[in-house]
Amino acid sequence: MEITAPTEITPAHYRKVLGRLPTGVVAITGVNDEDDQLGLIVGTFQSLSLDPPLVMFCVDKSSSTWPKLRNLQNFTANILSEGQVEVCRALSRKGPKKFENLPYATGPLGTPRLEGASAWIDCAVTAEVAVGDHYMVIGAISAMEEGTGDALLFKGGAFGQYLGHPAPVTATAKEK
Length: 176
Fold this sequence. Notes:
By secondary structure, the chain is mainly beta. The chain has helices at residues 11-18, 66-72, 85-92, and strands spanning 23-24, 26-31, 37-42, 46-49, 54-60, 74-79, 104-106, 112-114, 119-131, 134-146, 153-155, 158-160.
């Protein structure tokens, strides 16, 4: 393999290289005091700690929805399923009425749990750190539940799904 000279790390180059790594698609949802449903999409959601149970995600500092959700101090992370591309698109829009025609139930925190999600994780915001052009948010899990379907993935500018490979066949002691 030939090693090439380093290239300038432009936003386009950064997206191209990091776009090779699939990420899960997660809707962060909440409801304000006026009973308005709030939501945004993140692609950096992950487990952080088992004891105590914590998760983390990152959100762009330019988000107009995150400041409203931050003030609530509670959110539900809805791990979208492979059939929820349109839900992702709806919650990615700017402006009000993101939840128009989106079926959901109210979870234990009073936050929207989107119907058809692979899982729901109810959290309280415990920390937020400004990092570059994003905020890294840490949430303490108060409840979680499995839904149905496999998680929706995003890679290289396109949505997809996980297709597992069968485990390799290994010889047993008797076969040797």
